């Protein structure tokens, strides 16, 4: 196949008179084919200059090593990201602060990986690839067969000009550096398929969930103070309130930050109103609160449904619970529905009971998710 073309050249590639380019002629250099093909496509290569006139010069080899190092560092930090993602402890554990480094370490390794990838690609392009200036005309329509062949030649030429064949170290370094990048991208997707993040249902359970006993039975969780001592009804005076925690290991720590609960001892008249409201429920509640109170005691999650602050300012005269963060108010005697402020959902109510020894227990976990809304609310 031959193509009629014209051209000029300052580096011994091509000519300034019309010439016939035969793509099948082995004497035609690849650059001549590329140049002719570019011209066919309305692109004129007006300047072409290899970075290193002497191939394999000391300077070129040094740059080759530098770019290789960047790619190897890319691979190193990519691998470090994947290893940390898999093995670094990320769960809160009392007295252990390693989990705090989980996110920063992932961020640092990921950031360095992208930094070195950028350095590698930019340095390769700037310091190893030939300098070329081309001028291109725009055109419309599909490409003819000759153009497509020309593109094939151009791509082959580009691959050759990347110099990977000539610089095996660079090719190996790029492969070693970029393979972990692919793993980094795949890790969060594949990780979620290997290990179910919802396996222990932690988004929907709190420390109040009844404990499974080895004999197959379940034990209800006691209410305790932050020092772990259990609470009897006589410990909270009429009109008073107390913050209580699940009586389980680390129940009063951040390990169960979703569990703090406000136990309130209502006055008898207010308790009667609260009981009637419980029986009536709320339109948006999917659970029945009947029997959730114990005598005149009632318990609600302390985690504000607006943005998760502890709502703990209880006003005895009005039976309203105030959240100090954005002033949401919840009417305790009306199923803790929000009556003021930005919160739009009532506080979840905890079903109360007393065990054989006279201590308060939660008769089940919360039946509604505690805290602010999130995307998986059933
Ligand atoms: S967090 Fe309670 S009102 Fe905003």
Task: Describe the secondary structure blueprint for this structure.
Elements: E1 2-5, E2 19-22, H1 30-40, E3 43-49, H2 58-87, H3 102-128, E4 131-136, H4 145-162, H5 168-194, E5 211-212, E6 218-219, E7 221-224, E8 241-246, E9 261-265, H6 268-280, E10 297-301, E11 313-315, E12 320-322, E13 329-331, E14 337-340, E15 352-354, E16 360-362
Antiparallel strand pairs: 1-2, 3-4, 5-6, 7-8, 7-16, 8-9, 9-10, 11-12, 12-13, 13-14, 15-16
Helix pairs in contact: 1-4, 2-3, 2-5, 3-5
Bound molecules: FE2/S2 (inorganic) cluster.
FE2/S2 (inorganic) cluster binds at residues 304, 306-309, 311, 323, 325-326, 328, 341-343.
Task: Outline the structure in words.
Residues 295-361 form the Rieske domain. The chain has helices at residues 30-40, 58-87, 102-128, 145-162, 168-194, 268-280; strands spanning 2-5, 19-22, 43-49, 131-136, 211-212, 218-219, 221-224, 241-246, 261-265, 297-301, 313-315, 320-322, 329-331, 337-340, 352-354, 360-362. The protein has 378 residues and is α+β, with helices and mostly antiparallel strands. It folds into three domains: 21-140, no CATH class; 145-193; 211-362, Rieske [2Fe-2S] iron-sulphur domain (Rieske Iron-sulfur Protein, 3-layer Sandwich). Strands 10-9-8-7-16-15 form a six-stranded antiparallel β-sheet, with no helix packed on it. Strands 11-12-13-14 form a four-stranded antiparallel β-sheet, with no helix packed on it. The chain has a two-stranded antiparallel sheet with strand order 1-2. Strand 11 (313-315) and strand 12 form a beta hairpin. Helix 1 (30-40) packs across helix 4, helix 2 (58-87) packs antiparallel against helix 3 and helix 2 packs parallel to helix 5. It is elongated, with a radius of gyration of 36 Å. It binds FE2/S2 (inorganic) cluster. Residues 304, 306-309, 311, 323, 325-326, 328, 341-343 line the site of FE2/S2 (inorganic) cluster (FES). FE2/S2 (inorganic) cluster (FES) binds at residues 304, 306-309, 311, 323, 325-326, 328, 341-343.
């Amino acid at each position: 196949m031959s193509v009629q073309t014209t051209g000029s050249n300052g580096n011994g590639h091509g000519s300034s008179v019309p010439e016939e380019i035969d793509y099948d002629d082995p004497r035609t250099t690849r650059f001549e084919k590329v140049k002719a093909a570019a011209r066919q496509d309305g692109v004129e290569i007006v300047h072409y200059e290899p970075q290193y006139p002497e191939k394999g010069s000391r300077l070129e080899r040094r740059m080759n090593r530098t770019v290789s190092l960047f790619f190897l560092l890319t691979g190193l930090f990519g691998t470090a990201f994947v290893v940390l993602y898999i093995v670094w402890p990320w769960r809160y554990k009392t007295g252990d602060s390693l989990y705090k480094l989980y996110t920063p370490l992932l961020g640092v390794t990921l950031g360095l990986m992208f930094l070195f990838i950028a350095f590698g690609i930019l340095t390769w392009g700037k310091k190893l690839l030939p300098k070329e200036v081309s001028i291109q005309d725009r055109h419309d329509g599909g490409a003819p067969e000759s153009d497509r062949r020309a593109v094939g030649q151009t791509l082959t030429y580009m691959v050759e000009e990347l110099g990977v064949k000539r610089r095996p170290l660079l090719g190996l370094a790029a492969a070693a550096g970029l393979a972990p990048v692919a793993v980094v991208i795949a890790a969060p997707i594949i990780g979620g398929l290997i290990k179910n993040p919802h396996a222990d249902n932690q988004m929907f359970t709190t420390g109040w969930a009844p404990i499974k006993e080895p004999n197959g039975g379940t034990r209800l969780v006691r209410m305790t103070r932050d020092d772990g001592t259990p609470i009897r009804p006589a410990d909270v005076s009429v009109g008073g309130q107390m913050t209580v925690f699940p009586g389980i290991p680390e129940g009063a720590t951040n390990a169960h930050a979703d569990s703090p609960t406000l136990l309130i001892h209502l006055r008898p008249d207010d308790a009667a109103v609260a009981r009637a409201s419980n029986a009536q429920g709320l339109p948006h509640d999917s659970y029945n609160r009947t029997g959730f109170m114990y005598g005149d005691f009632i318990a609600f999650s302390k985690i504000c449904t607006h943005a998760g602050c502890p709502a703990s300012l209880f006003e005895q005269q009005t039976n309203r619970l105030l959240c100090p963060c954005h002033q949401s108010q919840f009417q305790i005697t009306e199923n803790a529905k929000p009556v003021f402020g930005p919160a739009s959902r009532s506080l979840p109510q905890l079903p109360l009971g007393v065990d054989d020894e006279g201590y308060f227990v939660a008769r089940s976990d919360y039946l509604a998710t505690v805290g602010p809304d999130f995307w998986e609310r059933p």
